[in-house]
Amino acid sequence: MADATGDDLPSIRWSSMTTQRRRRKFSASMDEPSTLTIPAPRHSSLLLVAGLALIASVVLFPSLGRSAMEPDESLYALATDQIRESGEWWTLSPTPPHPYFNKPPLYMWLSATTYDLLPGFEFKYRFWSAVFGIVAVVMTGLLGAKLFRWEVGAIAGLLLLTNRSFLIDHGTRFGGMDAGLTACYAAMLWIYWPGKSVSPRRWAAIGAIAGVASMLKPLGGVPMLLVIFVFAIARWDRMARASLLPGPWRMSEGGPHRQASTLAHANRLILIVAAVGLPLVAIAAPWYVINHLRYPDQFTTHLFGQQIAGAISGGGDQAGDRPWHFYLTAVPRSSRHFLLLMPAMVWLAVMAWRRREQRSAAGFLAVAGIGWIALISVAEKKFLHYAYPAFVPLAIAMGGMIIDAAYRISCRLRYRSLARWLSNGVVVLLAGFAGWLAVARLEAMSDPSGLWETYRRSEAAIRSGQVSVLLVDVPAKRGDRWSDGQIARPQMSIYLTHMHGQRGGDAELRAALASPTPVLIILPANKAATLNAKENAVRRYADRYLVAIELNQ
């Protein structure tokens, strides 16, 4: 049987073939190269990076600033504005003089740095999220190519890019940190693999990226390191585990050899911890230490008590009522093509069982994907965007399953070029879908005409003082677009309810309704239940926004 090359198809064992000729042609031992380890063409990595970056840019940047800002990203935008106005970079304060410790400041730092260089309004605050999204897509492609082959990486990157939730739900087109966290996770996995002998430099790079992740979300790099360490420990040889770990790996033998082995493995573990910990602490610690010194009680209580412990315990949030299996159904439903996730998990299990040379790669994807899902499922507070880092290995698993199926079909039909046509066809199909998504779907989804038309129809009455307008959880634009008649401080460019908390928002609403002037109230549709509970909220408008008019008779 000929050696596998870039043009050869892998051999597959078919139990139904009885003739000796077919057995010689298609049968293979478990140790032969699989479909996914055929050498990639020259310069494939460069072409993969360029292609994915170009397609991702076409999807993410057009109409990035058209849709109205959501509550969380508007708060981050206000923190960015405050950095620019006050010059205070270490302690965020969206509503001075109150400090803000919900998120570390890296994303706001980046937005403030490039603010004057970028056009538009919302675009300024979402630019870096789109950049992180491009990095996440490219790193997913590179990791897929590193694990298997370039077609797997291309399909995996496009699957991630075209995931609807990853695009619009706290994702790459949202001015927040989750796209950056996903990019960090993909980069850490790419640096770590293959994990047989990871050098201290690679561990230091992993620690540095964990430090960056910890500056995007509170201690965001720690769970990523935990997942990688779990896989690294699982890959240690039996002697290393027996020397350092208790439990079923403990060895009963003693003697000088055991002591020398234990010392060597202990030194290696100390070196790994130091290589990871030093850059992590150097990057992330200054912000945590400075704010702890400035606000010793408030910082510790809020960040660790409310944010981290609150996420684990639920903290009375609506997301804390979701069941433990929330992600098992939410992730496949995040986009239609992610329904391939369940068969992809079965494919991973079969590949790990039947193909020795792919067992480690299958285990790596399983630990990186399922392990992350299991880790965040322990917390009571559950949101889909918490699972975005797991989308990277899960997309690679789906891409590997698609390419493997293409080669198996071609082998069964004994048509060598069919596999290449099928795999390239899937890549072209996903690229075309990404283009359609950018040109048609996202353009329609970002159209804010309903909100603006509502305001424009009432603009004359607002200017004459016959009607006042109250914006609740709707971004207040700069300039003259929203300023007239707005019941909010002029310097506030963001939200009312979200800025003051629920009680403050209710107080503002009651004050507006008590005014002798009719009030036009505009707020997102997800706040409809809150407003309907108020008196004199009379009608719903459009599909995304609710408009209520108080007639004060």
UniProtKB/TrEMBL annotation:
**What are the transmembrane regions?**
46-65, 125-145, 174-193, 205-234, 269-290, 337-354, 361-379, 385-407, 419-439
Chief subcellular site?
membrane
Q: Where in the cell is it found?
A: Cell membrane
Q: Under which name does UniProt file this protein?
A: Glycosyltransferase family 39 protein
What GO cellular component entries does it have?
plasma membrane
- Protein origin, superkingdom: Bacteria
Q: Where is the Glycosyltransferase RgtA/B/C/D-like domain?
A: 102-240
Q: What keywords sit in the KW lines?
A: Cell membrane, Glycosyltransferase, Membrane, Transferase, Transmembrane, Transmembrane helix
The protein's GO terms of the molecular function aspect are:
pentosyltransferase activity
PANTHER family per UniProt: MANNOSYLTRANSFERASE YKCB-RELATED, MEMBRANE PROTEIN
In the bilayer, the protein is annotated as: Multi-pass membrane protein
Query: Any keyword Hydrolase?
Result: no
> Which InterPro entries does the record associate with it?
LipidA_mod_glycosyltrf_83, RgtA/B/C-like
Name the segments for region: Disordered: 1-33
Which BP terms does GO give this entry? lipopolysaccharide biosynthetic process
